[in-house]
Amino acid sequence: MSNDSTAPGYLTSVGSSPEYDEKLERQISRWIRGVTGLGAKLVFPRWTDPQPSIPKNGITWCAFGVTTMPRGGTPANVQISEAQSEQWTWEQVTVICCFYGPGGAATASGFREGIYVDQNASALQRDAGMYLIDAGTIYNLPELINNQWVRRYDLTVTLSRKNIRTFNVKSIVDGNVTISTGE
Fold first, then answer.
1. Hey, which of 40, 163, 174, 181 has its CA 20 to 30 A from 70?
2. 180 with 116: CB under 8 angstroms?
3. What are phi and psi of 133, to 5 degrees?
4. Of all helices (H) and strands (E), which one includes residue 21?
5. Residues near 38 by Cβ (< 8 Å), separated by ≥ 6?
6. What average pLDDT does range 11-15 have in this prediction?
7. Number of H helices, E strands in the chain
8. CATH at 71
9. What pLDDT, on the 0 to 100 scale, is given for residue 175?
């Protein structure tokens, strides 16, 4: 089966693709840890299988989850060579960050302010190819965990990234056609 435009049928992208799932979660975890100073065992994805053990009561930690990935507009298709084209899309990545524990509010607030520091924004762009769009309101939402109320502060952050996928779409170099001007 051919995976280029010289034969009819479906095309799949070739080469590297945007990072999703665990790879995207690792990028976001590194970003949260870098800005908050929380340790690697204190920042983890909310919805995983198997679910990691949560820290003991009295420890400040963060659980996060990617909640939406809307794509605005239509993809741009750009012919990059005679043999390949790229499809460019701009995708938003919405992340809910839930900060728990006795320092949850301070950590959430520090994170929200810290992500607007130019050096932190540049590191996110360099390391993950993402840009900060918005950080919302911090909500105080205590949670009952193991029959104990635990402080919890939620913050939604919206990021943006440019995704590039490559397809083997050949350009027309020579067509078997005649163009007539009508003269």
1. 40
2. no
3. -105, -50
4. helix 21-36
5. 32, 60, 61, 62, 107
6. 93
7. 3, 9
8. 3.30.2000
9. 63
Q: Please count the structural domains in the chain.
A: 1
Tell me the residue type at 33. Answer: R
Q: Which residue has the higher pLDDT, 83 or 182?
A: 83
Quick one: average pLDDT of 110-132? 96
Q: Which of 21, 14, 17, 11 is nearest to 47 (CA)?
A: 21
Give the pLDDT band of residue 172 (cuts 50, 70, 90). confident
Residue 142 CA to residue 126 CA, distance in Å, equals 35
The enclosing H or E element of 36 equals: helix 21-36
**Nearest by Cα to 139 from 152, 126, 123:** 152
The domain containing residue 82 runs over which residues?
21-167
Omega cis (within 30) before 142: no
106 assigned to some structural domain:
yes
Q: In this structure, is residue 163 part of a structural domain?
A: yes
- Tell me if 179 is assigned to some domain: no
